[in-house]
């Protein structure tokens, strides 16, 4: 592995229907100081042969089983950081991208331009729009429709301590065309400063291994904020996302719960369990009591819905309880490194 300014990491799990389009868009980038690393979670769709045949310069790591999104990305992050000197980490970057992303040609260049003038920023993200695949009769997703409907323009925390994708579902009419600081960036596509990841590292974890998948990006954003790092939304950087699990940002409790019924039981399990684990880890005691009316109403409704209406309800509650001591241990280490006060963080949750 050379010493590029950026290491691009893709975690795959039977992702061949998306991967060729993503890799093609990476090769078309105007910014070239990159390495690409694929961490595969025991796919059975021929991804390894495809990459070795068409992209022999890509580093390919194959896991014998599905380790999950978080653990696989941690493999890649550790691999990249070990190939950089400690003194270089402030100016080295890791781009985490889902396989179902398509970059516009200047995406990386626009983000890297922003890094030069914002040394205190840990995470950078652009305008993520939704892509749709048309079924042409022979193959699903053979023809791509790049829409003007927003997927994410940063992470948006709410008073009840839920976090949604800012702008999700809205038509892009220029309402998010101003560069601005945000709480965090969606893990579907985020550029991270290597030094900041070392700053919030817990043992060998950067993303939380216990989360497996879903909400690990929100947890990382919260931890980076605690540690004194900022996140920047850069609207000039544009990409597209085939999102498998989404809803409009502006929706109430019951609408979100109804949306759960259209999604897989496994996704609902990880989404709900990891949200509760994230609260245990990150929310300050004072903040919790100040927000208790909103948290209590929302999480109380979610608890009873999960318990009585979701197949994985008992497992969700059981695993949250079992992981409670682990989250408390991580919480202790997190708060030891905290550089921002509860008041500084609380302003996001309004």
TrEMBL record:
<dbReference type="InterPro" id="IPR029044">
    <property type="entry name" value="Nucleotide-diphossugar_trans"/>
</dbReference>
<dbReference type="Pfam" id="PF00535">
    <property type="entry name" value="Glycos_transf_2"/>
</dbReference>
<comment type="similarity">
    <text>Belongs to the glycosyltransferase 2 family.</text>
</comment>
<keyword id="KW-0808">Transferase</keyword>
<keyword id="KW-0328">Glycosyltransferase</keyword>
<feature type="domain" description="Glycosyltransferase 2-like">
    <location>
        <begin position="7"/>
        <end position="125"/>
    </location>
</feature>
<dbReference type="InterPro" id="IPR001173">
    <property type="entry name" value="Glyco_trans_2-like"/>
</dbReference>
<protein>
    <recommendedName>
        <fullName>Glycosyltransferase 2-like domain-containing protein</fullName>
    </recommendedName>
</protein>
<dbReference type="GO" id="GO:0016757">
    <property type="term" value="F:glycosyltransferase activity"/>
</dbReference>
